[in-house]
């Protein structure tokens, strides 16, 4: 095994174009796609959300829908074997916790590259993942 080969790579996926780039990059670090754990994080529904008030949508339905969408997005021959997960919670916390659960060697995460006051106002999931992750984090722009 070379110095850059990894046994477990976590890739947070938000269905953006950069997420597919992150998957492609992660494939360069593993021997097999089944060593990649693609995870999508859903924000928890707020108690005032109409879907919660009228009980028209629950977390399991949301997770199933997101899982199906991930399967569609990763329905390419080179992606066969990638493990797919959907979690609910705060994105940066869930990514860090998930990476620790999987004993990840690497997190490959895309960023939108916000700068200045925009980054300050919106916060940065990527920045918090870098700060709290127990493994190396590769940030893609």
Automatic annotation (TrEMBL):
Alphabetized InterPro entries for the sequence: Rossmann-like_a/b/a_fold, Universal_stress_UspA, UspA
Q: Which residues form a coiled coil?
A: none
Annotated UspA domain residues:
9-141
Q: Name one Pfam family in it.
A: Usp
Top-level taxon of the source organism = Bacteria
Query: Where would you find the membrane-spanning parts of this chain?
Result: none
Family (UniProt): Belongs to the universal stress protein A family.
UniProt name for this protein? Universal stress family protein
